[in-house]
Design goal:
magnesium ion binding (chains A, B); Rossmann fold; alpha/beta; five-stranded parallel sheet; homodimer; Xul5P/Fru6P_PKetolase (chains A, B); 3 domains; 35% helix; six-stranded parallel sheet; 799 residues
Chain lengths: 799, 799
Amino acid sequence: MTEQGTTADYPDDELDLDLRWWAAANYLTVGQIYLRDNALLRRPLAHADVKPRLLGHWGTSPGLSALYAQLNRLIRRTGTPCLYVAGPGHGGPALVAATYLEGTYSEVYPQVSRDEEGVHRLFRQFSTPGGVPSHVSVQTPGSIHEGGELGYALVHAAGAAFDSPDLMVACVVGDGEAETGPLSGSWKIPAFLDARRDGAVLPVLHLNGYKINSPPVWGRSSDEEISGYLTSQGWAPVFVSGDDPRAVFRELEAAVRTSHDRIREIQAAARGGAEDVRPGWPAIVLRTPKGWTGPAQVDGVQVEGTFRAHQVPLSGVQTDGAHLALLEEWLRSYSPETLFTADGALVPELAALAPAGGLRMGATPYANGGLRRTPLDLPALERYAVDVPAPGATFAQTTHPLGELLRDVYARTTTEDGGGTFRLFCPDETASNRLQSVFEVTDRCLQTEVLPTDDHLSPHGRVMEVLSEHLCQGWLEGYLLSGRHGVFATYEAFAMVSASMVIQHVKWLQHAATLPWRAPVSSLTILLTSTCWRNDHNGFSHQGPGLLDTVIPLSPQVVRVWLPPDANTLLSVAEHCLKSTDHVNLLIADKQPHLQYLTLEQAHAHAAAGASVWDWAGTEDDGEAEPDVVLAAAGDVPTMETLAAAELLREWAPAMRVRVVNVIDLMALLPHDDHPHGFPEQRFDELFTRDTDVVFAFHGYPRAVHQLLHGRPDPARFHVRGFEEQGTTTTPFDMVVLNRMSRYHLVIEALRRSRRAPERGAELVRFCRAQLDRHHGYVREHLEDMPEVRDWTWGAGRG
Amino acid sequence: MTEQGTTADYPDDELDLDLRWWAAANYLTVGQIYLRDNALLRRPLAHADVKPRLLGHWGTSPGLSALYAQLNRLIRRTGTPCLYVAGPGHGGPALVAATYLEGTYSEVYPQVSRDEEGVHRLFRQFSTPGGVPSHVSVQTPGSIHEGGELGYALVHAAGAAFDSPDLMVACVVGDGEAETGPLSGSWKIPAFLDARRDGAVLPVLHLNGYKINSPPVWGRSSDEEISGYLTSQGWAPVFVSGDDPRAVFRELEAAVRTSHDRIREIQAAARGGAEDVRPGWPAIVLRTPKGWTGPAQVDGVQVEGTFRAHQVPLSGVQTDGAHLALLEEWLRSYSPETLFTADGALVPELAALAPAGGLRMGATPYANGGLRRTPLDLPALERYAVDVPAPGATFAQTTHPLGELLRDVYARTTTEDGGGTFRLFCPDETASNRLQSVFEVTDRCLQTEVLPTDDHLSPHGRVMEVLSEHLCQGWLEGYLLSGRHGVFATYEAFAMVSASMVIQHVKWLQHAATLPWRAPVSSLTILLTSTCWRNDHNGFSHQGPGLLDTVIPLSPQVVRVWLPPDANTLLSVAEHCLKSTDHVNLLIADKQPHLQYLTLEQAHAHAAAGASVWDWAGTEDDGEAEPDVVLAAAGDVPTMETLAAAELLREWAPAMRVRVVNVIDLMALLPHDDHPHGFPEQRFDELFTRDTDVVFAFHGYPRAVHQLLHGRPDPARFHVRGFEEQGTTTTPFDMVVLNRMSRYHLVIEALRRSRRAPERGAELVRFCRAQLDRHHGYVREHLEDMPEVRDWTWGAGRG
């Protein structure tokens, strides 16, 4: 429990002003929820002044505004740049009110002016069709966090704080959100935050007793329990509680002030060279009533301090006179006539409480990261390129050169204070994913004493490894939205753990693009590796390409899916993704040794084209005739199997006209009207013709391709093979057999679909079936020394 | 720190036996990873004895086996039924070894016999194509948990403990898994576990210093910190640490024994009537070296106790003589010749350490829940049916009658001790989702003092509300896999939070069905409500039907998707789902007032059919002519818009032959070969003809339907409208307009696609466009009092 601040620290007149500012914020919050007219109560409230559709969440709002008032005071006093992350995103009207009061709202939305008409618009637009949503959203100035899907407040806050040495991120964690898995996991910030080069996160655990209906677990825990929980994870909690505004404001002021002082002390020590890896970062626990300052009782039932204050405490105001009277009493309790001038502007003494310019939390460039972003300093790719003497003749670990590129990106973007503008986030798999070259220039980050048995570990390392996809992705989102660059690399199957975060981030970017005042931020690039086809050693739980299916239906303005078949195409596509803004890029490439096909130059051309005919692999003559069949592939393993199939066809049926198409930009398959990358009809037809059957080997679930192809000419002629959810611990070749995508399956399908039946076709089918039988025989016998058919290279079979 | 047990508690000869049993388990673990021959080292080890493909995880295994040994001792002493949940699932070989030693493995897999040939098979099959996966998986007797995707050990453990008053679930939490969000969130078990009627969870936090590469956060935390963390959440931790097997076994024995005693004490007090809601449940923190008893150093580098022991500590054994010698030394350190008889059977004194029969953890019916399951006692549906005097004439909250049904299911399945066999799991939204009738017979569960402001809350309540989809779903999975019944009800959009858990559960059921010894368990039924179309008040973050797309590609043997259009169809389908086994059912129905169409009898017929022509809504004559166009719908809102469109067409173009088809079983659209519910071709053609254009209004993303339709005649004739990721806080009608699925859009599309152009078609298109223009006008003007077009009923327009 903090001691109450003294009047020397917080003179009464300043407290009075802050309380009046808070009254104004609360007034505007209630107004947004209830009023469509009579915004400043110039006349008695009538039923007709009330919105017909009452939406919004009052319960959490007063607490959010109280903290805003105190942070404003801190910023005025200290000039510390602060970012406000509102975990309880449904407290949207409180944040809209606060940014309106400080003037930033009207700067980005001039029609919501700082006068009575503006207040009127502010109220009318809230939770109204065509207006603003009820959540703290991308439309809210100063926000990097929506707070609709709960769980990510602290990870976003931490991401913004990394490499922002001056910044303090105040992050409100609602007692509901505190029950989620991701939020529970994200309290471990002190284990990853480097006081020397990172900014600070000041969590404010806001306990107000109830969620929608139930009491939350922390709301029914003692201060001692909460203190034990936070202390054990590296925090030094300060408790503030009460329902008397004056007393709570004094306590909260002291808590914010002393927390900030302590943060600066910790940072000064670290930046002076101290090595204290567990300094005990301040955290505030704020207990205030749900619906604080709202109606205490309605219809004889307690409302304030209960779950009934969660959304709209007075529900009958459109028709019930008593409810209407209560609403008017409630609104007038804030004395709006003393807060707003005759013109409806905030009175000058309250307007003066706003921090200066860009220090206003609604105007901070940390929340509009595009303003802070500089393009990533990328080296030329040539030095990382894999030597490809001939297509499909050599093996290389496809992700390894990318690791070398990222190593040099780290080197070029690291600043003198040990910070920088680029980070790699990965759940303890950087080396497993073959990106270990980054450790030549930086380390894994952990705030701990380093032991001799540790491997590239340091409190000042900047590769973020934590065994949580939620943390990795959330940190990166916060890092990007505050103006930096990064990559999230993960096992493909476990990318689904944070799939819902991907969806929410796409939604954010989709809406952000419609707001001219939001500057573009770096894209979220997710490298999916250790893919289903080559997670043969880990088995079925590690085999799942589902994130592809999750992103396909999302905004075409945002989503990109790349399936580079080899190392140089991965380099080319990665460069493109790292340069891009406002996208979510899925980059899918396995880490194991794979055949390499294209030189860097060819890779650039292939990636730019999105899909190409690989003439060298096909058997079309140069003439005008259409191919007999098209073999298409997207992804590394499908490409190899397709090429092996093409080679078998070339050997056995050289007169057959086989075209080989490789697809790297998956969204190119969508009709052009449905995605900006969708090929125009003519380009699509050039690749796939209008009527030739296509045998398509695909990295993911086969029907994902079918959904993309709707709208293309005769989509039924596409015969897709891919991952059919058949897997276990087995060999790579057995995986393609189990899922019917092996070269032999592709050959059989191609012969079945070919326009013309080649001479030795039946014989070739028998050969393929025999190969598959032989393989099944191996597996039945548990012969773990089964020969690996992957030891094949293009052209080797031609002898 | 627990005091070391005395020799009175744990006589030396018993300790010696347990240590020898442990040596046998470790020997079998190393053998599984390395050996393909010479299984019992009857001759010197040769390179040829070693597998060519070394897979598996040694690091965590000895700790898992040590705990198994101590739990066996506890079970022998006390007869307490125990379930072992191995969070570090990649410690699979340890659990396989333990269940082999106790005999259960050979009972379910007789070919892996208890002799030398059996040991040989045990080794050969591990991580081998066609053999057993490297993870603790569905194939492992005694497991309800795979542990590949980390995070769910404790939720599965808790789910099994609910309503299992005698059971103790020992749950090993790895230090890597402890970093995940879901696991971090799931330590709050003490807030939800009722000592009176539930069993106990005994977590064992296993710290061994490293994940794949990095040290874990808890591994670098002090005992004091860990104690603070656990204590604050209702646990009473006991610490065991060391690397001397004898000493650790003594400490661990004491920890397990005293924990069990304390659990029984807590339970006895609660069952005697005490109301202590925070008893402090025992938890063990076990610190042992990674790769304990493995090679200390390899090639001059420390291995034991470091990340290098994570998987295969000796990698060069196939060719490197020194490595091979180390492996032989390691294997022989366990003295296999003293553990196995000349026949290769475990020596009798060690075999005698196995608990009796069904108390062996590999044989416990709690881990093979189908053996314990009795069909759910469901009442007749008639009493819950909504009265439907005519189709589309009245509104009702579709989910409300389901709540009444679940209320009576609770009532019928509650046992005298306050437990039972059915639970509802929901993230604080039971009332919001209109299932509040359940509170007539039970309460929300929270271990807390109940306050006057609480709403249907009790420590003995059995509705599980926690604001975490991970916890809700994971608890239910554990509850089902241990033989009970339940439903997970959640906001549709946030079902994506636990989408990866759905995938993993489908994989589990898919493989379980191939194992004759696993008895069928109740299906996982997920009610998705508060759907995208009617989350208009919460906005874009709450609008996402993506779980549909996640499950479509998964095992057709397991996945079912139901889209009941109204309350009676929901009842019918829910009954079907609650009776079913081994499926994952998505049940999608909104909670708001919706039009009601079918009587219960009609609903049963419709649900059984999967899809039907709704003759009353169409304008086909009875003759032979094909319809001009088919209007199809799947989902409640799409059904309403489709019917309104049909009515407009009937009014304006009565001569047009319009067929209305309603689809309730989505998987029926898949070809019959691809899903057991897929309609045979003839049935599909009867509904949709072979060549008529179909305008399909769909609940989810439109291309989801297109992916299902591949393989049907002329799929390009299907024109699907659905959720196109357009949303915000707005009105229900604006949502269907934004996503181009409104009645007016459907009419325009139907007229465009109709085989014949009706007389007043152009006029009707103009009318529809005018209606849409008028709507857009409303929205542009922010008229929140915009009339709600949803206030329409079937036939009302006919006047």
